[in-house]
Amino acid sequence: MIINALRARNVLKYGYLELKALPAKGMIAISGLNESGKSTIGETICFALFGQTFSLDPQHITKVIKWGEAHCLTSIEFTPTDGKRYRLDRFLDKEGNQGARLSLADQRQAFARGVIDVYAKLTRLIQFDYLQFIESFYLIQRDLLKTPHPHSIAVKAMAGVAALERVEKILTDELTHHKLSVEDLGQQMSHIEAQISQLGIREERLAELEDQRCLVDGGKLNKIMLVEKIKHALQACQDSISWVQHSLIQIDISIHRYSASGHITLFFLLLAGAAWIAVLLAQIPQIEASPDWLKWGFLNLESGQDLRVLALSGILSLFFIGFWIRGNLLKWRLAWYKQNIIDRAITLGVRKQDLTDNKEIELAPALEGPLLDTEPIDPDGQFLEWVQAYMARVTALRDHIAMREIQISQEIRDLTQEVSKLDRAIAEEQERRRQGQILIEQIEKTKAQIKDHHHQIKVREYALELLASACRYFSRRFNTYIGIIAKTLLPSLTGGRYEHLKIDEDLNVQIFSTEKSDFMDIDEISSGTHRQIMLCIRLALSQALIKTAIRGPQFIFLDEPFAFSDEQRLVGAITALRRLHELFSQVFIIAQEFPGGAIIDKHIVCKREMRDLVLQGILST
Predict the structure, then answer these.
(1) Half-sphere exposure of residue 583, counting CA atoms within 13 Å on the CB side?
(2) Which of 242, 519, 544, 592 is 20–30 Å from 329 (CA)?
(3) CB 136 within 8 A of CB 542
(4) pLDDT tens digits for 262-281?
(5) Residue 136 neighbours by CB distance under 10 Å
C-alpha cells in the first residue's frame, strides 16, 4: 500500500493539513523541533486509515479533534496491491459520532459506508489491520526498546500461524462444547435411569397380572355358567312346584266329585232297594205260592208297576255303572299324575346332580337323597302325603339353590370388580412399560450421542496436536527467517559493529560480540545500539509481513527511530533503508533534522508556529 495524498481539518495541531504529490518510492523526510507537529502527520495517517491512533485509546478518540473545534475531517488517497487508487474519508465530532466512506479516487459513489463496513473492506484491500499496522509499519521511537511480543496478533499473522490459531480456537471451543455436551448427556442419562428405576418395572409383572386376570376371568365365567345352570334348575323347580300344585287342585276336585257321586249313588241305591223290598213284601204271599217267585212274570204287579220298577232298576244300574267308571277314571288320573310327577322328579334330579357335580354347590344332608319316593302307594291314603313330601323337598331345593344363586351372583360382582382392578393394573403396567421403552430409547439415543461426542473429541484433540505441531514449525521457520533478514540489516544499522544475532521462539535477541567471542543479551549493549538492533528486528518483522501477506509495494512510517544516533549512523541508516526499496517503497521518517549527506526524496518541514500545513511540491536534498 502506497499513500498518494493526505488531507485533514482540525486534527490535533493543524487546522488544515494537505500533503499532495507524495512520491510512491523513496524517502519522505519530516523534520522540525519538538512539538512542531511532526508526529501529528503520522497520527493523522493512522486515524485516516483506521479511525484510531496509537497515542489515544478508543474511549478518548475525540481528543484527536483540535482544541476548540467541534469536529474533524480526514481524507486519504492510497494505492494497494491491486494498483487502483482509493479514497477514504472520515468524520468525527465531539460527541463521538464517527462516519466513514470508501470509494475509488476518481468516483464519487462509495462502495463502503460506515465505520465497520469500511474497516472490513479496507483490511481486505491492504492485507493488514490496525494492530499489524502499528506493529510493523508505524514504528515510534519510544516503542523501539520493547521486544515485540511473540504471541501478539501481528507477529502471529506475520509468522503465518494466526489463521492456524483461529482454527485452533474454533477447535478448542468445539472441544469444550463436546466435553460439556458429554457431561450434560451423562447427567441426562443418569436422570433417565433414575426415572426408569422409579417406574419399578419387573419383567414378570405383566405376565403375572395377565395370568391372574385369566384365572379370575375364568373363575368368573365358570360362575356365570353355574348361575345359568342354577337359573334353569330354579325354573325347573318352580315349574314342577306350579304343576304339582295345579295337579293337586285337580286331584282334590276329582276326589271330592267321586266322593259326592258315590254318596248320591248309595242314596238312590238304598232308596231303590227299599222300594224293591216294599214291593216284595207286598207280594210275599204270591211269591210263596209261586215256585218261580224270582221271575218277573210271576210277580203279581199292577198294570204299569212293572215298567216303573224296571225303569228304576235301570236308573240304579246306570248310577252304579257311572260310579264304577268314575272310580276307575280317578284311579287312571292318579296314575297319570304319579307318572308325571315321577318324570319331573327324574328330570329335576338330573339337574340337581348336574349342580352337585360342581364344587361350588353343597346341599344340605336332607337334600342329598332322591327328591321322590317311587315305591307303590295307596291312592286312597298315601298319594297326597307322597306328593306333599315331594313338594317339600323340591321347595327346599329351590330355596337352597336360590340362596346359593344370590351368593354366587355377589361373587361374580366381586370377581368383576377384581377383573376391572386387574385391567387397570395391566393398563398401568403397560403404560409403565411404554414409558420405560421410551426412556430406554432415549438412553440408547443418548449413548449414541455420547459416543459421537467422544469421537468428535478424539478428532479435535488429534487435530489440535497437529495444529500445535504446525504452529511450532511455522514459528521456528519464521524466527529463522527473521534472524536471516535481521542479519542483512544489522551491519548497516550498527555501523558494522555487529553482524550476527540469535532469536529464540519468544523473540528474545542475543548479539554476537567479537570482543567476547560469544553471544550476549541485548541488555548488555548501549541504549543507542539497543534501539538500532530493535529497529532491525522491527524492520525484519515488517518485511516478513510484506512477503507473507501483502506481496507488493508498502509504505512504512518511522517516528524518530534515530533520536539517539549520531549524524554518521543516521546517514548510514537512511542509506540502508534506501537499499530496501524493493520492500519498503515509501518510507516516512521523522527526525529533528537531517544531515546534509542524507539522501531524501521529499522533505516536509514542520514549525511550532504553523497552524496549517500545505505541501504540494517536492523538496530534495
Answers:
(1) 20
(2) 242
(3) yes
(4) 666 666 666 666 666 665 56
(5) 27
Q: What is the mean pLDDT of residues 98-106?
A: 94
* Cα–Cα distance for residue pair 19/13, rounded to 1 Å: 15
Instruction: Report the alpha-carbon distance of residue 396 to residue 237 in Å, rounded.
Output: 10
Query: Are the beta carbons of 79 and 86 closer than 8 angstroms?
Result: yes
Tens of pLDDT, residues 588-618? 989 888 887 777 888 999 998 888 998 765 4
- Strand, helix or coil for residue 112: strand
DSSP class of 381: T
User: What does the pLDDT look like over 44-92, one tens digit per residue?
Assistant: 999 999 999 988 888 899 999 999 999 999 999 999 988 999 999 999 9
0.90 surpassed by pTM: no
Identity of the highest mean pLDDT range in 1-5, 230-234, 288-292, 575-579:
1-5
Q: What backbone phi and psi angles, to 5 degrees, belong to 598? A: -80, 130
CA gap 145, 534 in Å, rounded:
6
Alpha-carbon distances of 150 from 167, 428, 475, 508, rounded to whole Å: 19, 68, 9, 9
How far is Cα 434 from Cα 438, in angstroms, rounded to an integer? 6
Q: Mutual orientation of helices 383-493 and 205-282 as an angle, nearest 10°?
A: 170
Q: How far is CA 263 from CA 29, 326, 330, 477, in A?
A: 175, 13, 16, 155
| DSSP, residue by residue, 126-147 | HS--HHHHHHHTEEEGGGTTSP
Which one, of 454, 260, 229, 251, lies nearest residue 353 by Cα? 229
